[in-house]
Design goal:
Elements lengths: L5 H9 L11 H5 L3 H4 L8 E6 H10 L5 H6 L2 E2 L3 H11 L6 E6 L7 E5 L16 E5 L7 E6 L1 E2 L5 E2 L5
Antiparallel strand pairs: 1-3, 2-5, 3-6, 4-5, 7-8
Length: 163
Amino acid sequence: MTATPSSIRSTHERFDHSECDHSECEVFAKHPFGARLRNYPMSEFIFHITSRAEWTAAQKAGRYLTPSLAKEGFIHCSTRAQVLPVADKFYKGQSGLIVLGIDPARLSSALKWEPPFEGAPPPGVSSGDVFPHIYGPLDLDAVVQLLDLELAPDGSFVLPSKL
């Protein structure tokens, strides 16, 4: 069985497609982003950029919440290919940032793959790309990788080699 993002997983399982390879799956095909979602298996890590201070506070509190969760209803995440464009657009020149590697299988909150919030994606990301959004707190044990986001002299970022 091919893994599907959780945004359609519950709909998929309600219609007893547990043995489906999705090539002929009507639920999958009718999902607005079905064709694009085929490229995002649940077995791949997703990533979230934050400050080391915010992550330390989350560990002390026992859960990780972001202002976007309260304001927009979800935590913004990226695929590996989206990390640098997102960092350069939203965090340019900031230091002390880290990248959290998240195992989607360990999330208790819903994970949805959606178009960029508020319109166009950052430069370097295709207009057809979808982004992972976590609809609820991020479970601390879902974070399986933590890497420093290195800042280049020009204020842009360098992708961590272990990412």
